[in-house]
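User: Is it possible to get a 3D structure for a protein together with its bound compound? The compound here is adenosine-5'-triphosphate. I've pasted both below.
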Amino acid sequence: MGIVHIPIHTMSDTHEPSMETIISLAKRRGFVFPGSEIYGGLAGTYDYGPLGVALKNNLRNLWWRIFVESRDDMYGVDAAILMNPKVWEASGHVTGFSDPLIECKKCKHRFRADQVKTKPKKDKEDNLVRDEEVWICEHCGSKNNMEEPQQFNMMFKTHAGASEDAMTVYLRPETAGGIFMNYKNIIDSVHPKFPFGIAQIGKAFRNEIAPRDFIFRLRELEQMEVEYFVRPDEWEQAFEQWRIMMHEYAQAIGIKDSTLHELEVLPKDRAHYSKRTIDFEFDYPFGRKELWGLAYRTDFDLSAHEKGSGVELKYLNEVTKEKFTPHVIEPSLGVDRTVLATLLSAYRQDEMGNEKRVYLAFPPIIAPIKAMVSPLLRNKPELVEKARSVYKDLKKVIPQIMWDDNGNIGKRYRRQDEIGTPFCITIDFDTLGEKPELKDTVTLRHRDTAQQERMSITNVISVVRDAIQGITSS
Ligand code: ATP
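Assistant: Yes, that's possible. Here is the predicted structure of the complex:
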């Protein structure tokens, strides 16, 4: 049936939001709040509100669908966060999981040495002094007044047990440790064919020296990780496969190719276990920085845990009797940075009816709310009753929908635009049969174009369902 065209003017220069814009939208609309805020907060911690939880669930579920369920060679685990500390001794984290810490002699503020601002050193005649830089304290502004850098271990320690000599345990700094601990369990219980992978989504903790940039650098974070076990001579093709899959995921969640950049990490900058690493960097408002990582971890972990535990962790091919220590490819994706990148990627501003409009152009599959149902007027009981029944029917098939009858219809649409709801469904007098040929039809409004279509309630259900399954876009 008919489509109503609403003139939209896109303001092309306002597509890139500032961090302040995103942080304030996230708080105002219930995506992300500062952690324990009424006590002044705790650096590096944030809480997710109703829309943030829904967005995160959608991002995790889609990741699981693509990285695990779409394949025949992937197995999931959910390992304990607390582990025997020997895990982290063997993996090298107790000695090696550290960042260089530097302290300002004047104000005693501490920074990550590789993130301290520098500027080129000049002599009295204003000539550059080659290979020398001036270190500037971000807090008090003093120049070249820093202590020597020291290595600072970022693992959080706690104690397991009530006795005085309770065991020191660590909050895991990456989920990978829990995956390696289950390598043998998966072999012994599932008997997977080679190559195969293990996936896990869960919290990780890093005592970052300088948590910053909203949910970019946190002390409590969440990761979606795969350890994919391969024959030593097959690592390159597996690396390539997962690299492509990471791009597929980026595309599915609305991260544009033009904002995602692969950085081949130089040997001197790679983690202690890696022989090749690609950082997937994203253009944040504060610069191009890591979003996700893809690493070739060789047989470092399984060999180290075999040595540390005394338990053999080799793979035996029952047919050929070939026995070897598998090598590992690891795609590692931070959930929180993914949330930030999708919010930034989805943010749009345009002008509609001479008013500025803000909307989040989430792909429907990750939108926290899929559709809003509303009666055209809230003071007409017959409209409200019909709208309620449409809402109830739709909610049975698509639970992530919302009811809104507050304020005028234009305001309701704007509120939904701002949280990225792809569809608004309005019940009006034609739905009740004022024009008999339109009975039981509703208007379906599309978020990005603001176009409205008239269609039957049954068609609305299938349009919304198809869109959130990725069959068509909004
Ligand atoms: P960075 O160089 O930014 O400190 P990293 O190289 O230490 O990151 P990895 O150890 O590769 O990060 O961790 C894998 C993924 O986990 C990262 O790509 C990122 O998405 C996420 N991640 C790591 N540290 C943090 C953090 N402090 N806060 C939020 N997410 C993080």
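The pocket of adenosine-5'-triphosphate is lined by residues 174, 206, 208, 217-218, 221, 223, 290-293, 332-334, 336-337 (CB under 6 Å). Confidence is low (pLDDT under 50) at residues 1-7, 9-14.
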